[in-house]
Records
---
Amino acid sequence: MRLDELHQEFLTCLEVERNYSPLTTGAYRSDFKIFASFLEEAGLPSLLETVDRSALRRYVAWLKRRGLAPTTVGRRINSLRSFWNYLRDTDYTERDPFFRMSLPKTPQEVPTHLSAEEAEALLAAAQRQACLFNAFRDTAILSVLLYTGVRRSELLSLALTDADLSAGALQVVSGKGRKSRVLPLLPAPCAALSDWLELRPEDCGHDRVFTCKWGAPMSRSGLASCLRRALNRAGITRPGITL
């Protein structure tokens, strides 16, 4: 059976039967699109029978070659694992290619990641800010970080020409070797970016997407303040939170 059809059934189950939020289902959809891109690039058919231990190992290697952090690779695989658990629960398959699958080792000090509910609360907190400029900009920043998994440095380097909102695509240039990759942009981050670009100061003298109030490119400290402000408003106090 075709994986895309099965995954749409999985998303419908999450939305209708389990009442998952659009943010959560959107994340699953984005992760599956990335897996589908891997299958297409590897010349593998998008079929249930394709997913075996060998294909998954190749997928992990494919993700690592794109410079993704071990924690991000793990999240992509766990998202796919959740989809596979659904397929097993609904008797589409009895196989479990994820059983005892080893993932890339993470650093000893593993950062604390947000749950889907916390991520949704974080976006809501950004939108509630009294300052319209901060509300639109911070919502766009958090949406891009949460939905695409780009690094903070990559986000700060985004240029206006990197975001193709009509095509739903984001070109990201990594500092490592200046390699570029194109990531899918779901409707939520597309809408958030569109709203922000309407408020972005004109005649900044640069083409960076994200700016401070007086038009200068957003700095690392400015981004850290944005994240800290949203975490405080959302009441998320666990130490070591990272996006």
---
Amino acid sequence: MSGQNVPRLKKFYAKELLPKLMGELSIKNVMDVPNLKKIVVNMGLGEAVQNPKALESGCDTLRAIAGQKPVVTLARKSIATFKVRENMPIGAMVTLRGHRMWEFFDRFINVALPRVRDFRGIQSRFDGLGNCSIGIKEQIIFPEVDYDKVDKIRGMNITLVTNAKDDKAGKLLLKHLGVPFRN
């Protein structure tokens, strides 16, 4: 670990944010302070049923954005109206942890989100356990995606998973890390 470069946001969390959160949430134990555990980036590729190239294109996009190979997700059950059969590939996802997670989070908050058209902040969608889900309508907001190679504009879901005990602590952590929430 000493030979690796520690991500900027991870240093900020450890040195400045940890004591600040302990004071604001009146927590005595350092291990109880909310932390970012993982980030899950999910892209639904329903058109892969008719167009198998869509799955390959979506996986390439996720690979460029996240920096690691995505896992192809399969349909859990057959749905006749959508012409989907059980175990058919219909999406791709990446789970980021450690340094890759912190680097992705930094790029997402400081580079990608400001590129969203008419951006006024993120609506706070929490699940009751401090985890926040963010819907992105266009994958081209990420600078890693080559606009000329994009065959279709696709959306994705980004879930920020924390170890906070409630939404208040999770939102406070993410707000201090730089997530621009809508008021």
---
Amino acid sequence: MMVPTIRSRPTYPGLRPLVAARCNLFAVEGAGAAAVLRLLAEAPPGFADRTEVVLAAAAPEDEAALRDAGARVHVCVDADAALDTLDLLLSSATMGTRLQVAGGEGFVGRVVRRGIDHCIDPRSVLTEHAGTLARRVQCVHCKTFTEAVTTSLFECPGCGNLLLVRDHFSRRLAAFQGVCVNAEDPAERPHPEEVYR
């Protein structure tokens, strides 16, 4: 029996050196820096001169290596600051700018969403998953977002419901959906499993 494919589930085809682009704009979180460094090492001469990297929560040695490779680097303290910087860069981007993103699932989804907000076709954004499988989850009951969820069940910090993390990914919200698992009997508290490390 074949397991059905979950159509909403994101796929991450990986980063590529788009040599015809006038500007290659990378949004990178944590372990995603290694993917961009690999790409810069394999890219043809002159590619790094047209490369800008918005870097969130990465090691100082990754920042130094990206600068040494010739990329312009914008260092941000966290993902939220990186998204704000990305907004500024996209608001002044010219035709021929290509957006790519590498990092955790929640970060990748949020960057693609920002691209959509700037009229970028989400199918044109190249993505690579790097690092944790932790998910960004929205509670369908109170609409609270929770970052870095690693278990199949967790308590919503907004409404206190015990939520099951579904495999449904909302591209509009850049988050997986969490639904109450014990609505009929709130006293029933199944044990959560660590599944998204």
